[in-house]
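Q: Structure tokens for this one, please.
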Amino acid sequence: MEAIGRAESFIYIETQFLRSPEIVRALCEAARRSPDLRLVLLIPSAPQEVLFDDARDPAQRHGEWLQLRGLDRLVGAFGDRFAAFSLINRRRRDSRDDRRTIGSHPVIYIHSKVCVVDHLEAIVSSANLNGRSLRWDTEAGVIWRDGDAVRAFEDRLWRRHLGAVFDGHDTTLPPKRLLDLWNAAGEESAPSDWPSFVAPYPLEESRFFARRSWAVPDNLV
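A: Here is the predicted structure, written as tokens:
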């Protein structure tokens, strides 16, 4: 929350869930406060239980509803300064038409928890951005503010996720240009030997699945 409150130009979040209304509210306030602020979000295309166990219970649907509500608010606050992505495996193709694929590629489940703000501070943690992690579970994390180390960490992240799209660039890119590269990587459809690539987060599929449940506490999903 403090890092988001200091953000001026760029925020990167990689998380298993984004269901915390407090985090979403802080991000929206940052967007209004800093008109040049860009936000990149990397999250799974669906919860683990939905992807691999085909779960459709009220808790799973309510969790997706919380996340969808947050994503809609971020779109409203940031506009085209925000983009959300998932990971896919471009070495494999799959003919199934369900949430385990994006296009014809199987999804890669994201379980990491990372945040980078303004190339100046970074967090790697066990905590997801949902009520259960932030209020109930025991979590641990590391934050560091060595600018050179943070940029080196970012460089490894962007090269890992963006592949050839990031070739010839480094973390001194202006935030707008960096967001453009993420969007370009998400639109790239040519086969590649690189094991994973980003793809646009399947927002409409999430909208179809999400259902609010008055019986499920927000802070337990």
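A few notes: Helices lie at 2-6, 21-33, 48-53, 58-78, 131-136, 147-162, 175-187, 203-209. DSSP finds eight helices and nine strands in the chain.
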